[in-house]
Amino acid sequence: MPQARCGLLQAARTLTDPALRAAVGGLSPAISRIVGYHFGWCDVDGVPTKDGAGKAVRAALALGCAEAVGGEVGGAVPAAVAAELVHNASLLHDDIIDGDTTRRNRPAVWTVFGVPAAILAGDALFFLAVQVLADRPPHSGGEAIPRLSTTVQRLIEGEHADTAFETRRKVSLDECLAMAVAKTGALLECACTLGAIYGGATASQTHALGQFGVHLGIAFQLVDDLLGIWGDPDVTGKPAASDLINRKKTVPVVTALTSGTTAGERLAAMYDDDQPSNIQTAASAAILIEQAGGRAHTQALVDHHIQTALEHLHAARPARSPVAELTELAQLVTNRDH
Question: Which of 186, 195, 202, 280 sits most deeply, having the most CB atoms within 10 A of its CB?
């Protein structure tokens, strides 16, 4: 992702990075080093590096939504930090679940420090996110921690569905989209909602911005589904075609499987085969998915949810400058050309 094009992302990294580092620094030295490696702040031995800590999309959404309702951006930093901590906790666990060996173009934490250490580091970040909100609650009195807690439960639900789909022969498109809402939409909704709460939003503004996050999250996940099949690993930082090698039933896959086409039937036979998948079979599967219409249909869904997200953004009646920045961010993170 060409991060330099989006001022909101740059501002989010500048504002949240010190607070994020301070929060992680409060963990035990051993766990702090593991998390620091995951964020790209240090190498395996704890020696500082110049690598970044990811795109900070969720932090940018929190800060942008706070500003959109007239709040001070700096006052929403706890919301931004909490959202980033939960997101990175989920990444630590995701890489173990999916067996992905790289993250952000470097070895994944579990391959370096071991599975138990990676699990515990992820657990630590979940609880640290709650602590950050408890230490600096919103002045408006909004219920930030219950919202975060509910979001984590929905994330877990989405992840469980994602893994359960791998062993089910039939999964509907509606089930896939519901999984996308829980797995990705829920956290983007939470980031936007927390930002709005810390910015002093009204209930209607908070709801509208939350829905902006939900639909942006769905579009974001659908783009991730596309990149999981056709993305360049040198750009995404993830293994090539890992979704197909793991036989994940993402939206492009399920669209193809339920298309009633010859290509869809051939894909179903490949997915039902007991033989392990590899990069060659994954490449063949990608061709079948495209032939069955899975790629085009998913792209159309991305466009629909981006448009719906922007409609909810405008319904919140945000300030002009923040809405332009949030619109730019929405378009950037759902760009299918990266």
Answer: 195
At residue 70, does pLDDT exceed 90?
Answer: yes
Percent of the chain with pLDDT over 90: 77
Residue 245 near residue 277, CB atoms below 8 Å: yes
Domain extents for the chain? 3-333
> Residue 89 has which token pair?
């906790």
> Which CA distances in Å does 225 have to 65, 132, 286, 330?
26, 31, 12, 17
Cα torsion 289, 296, 328, 312 to 10°: value is: -110
- C-alpha torsion 330→332→336→338, nearest 10: -150
Angle at which helix 115-135 crosses helix 77-98, to 10 degrees, equals 160
Give tens-digit pLDDT for 129-182. Answer: 999 999 999 987 678 999 999 999 999 999 999 889 988 888 999 999 999 999
Fold of the domain spanning 3-333: Farnesyl Diphosphate Synthase (1.10.600)
H/E stretch holding 103 reads strand 102-103
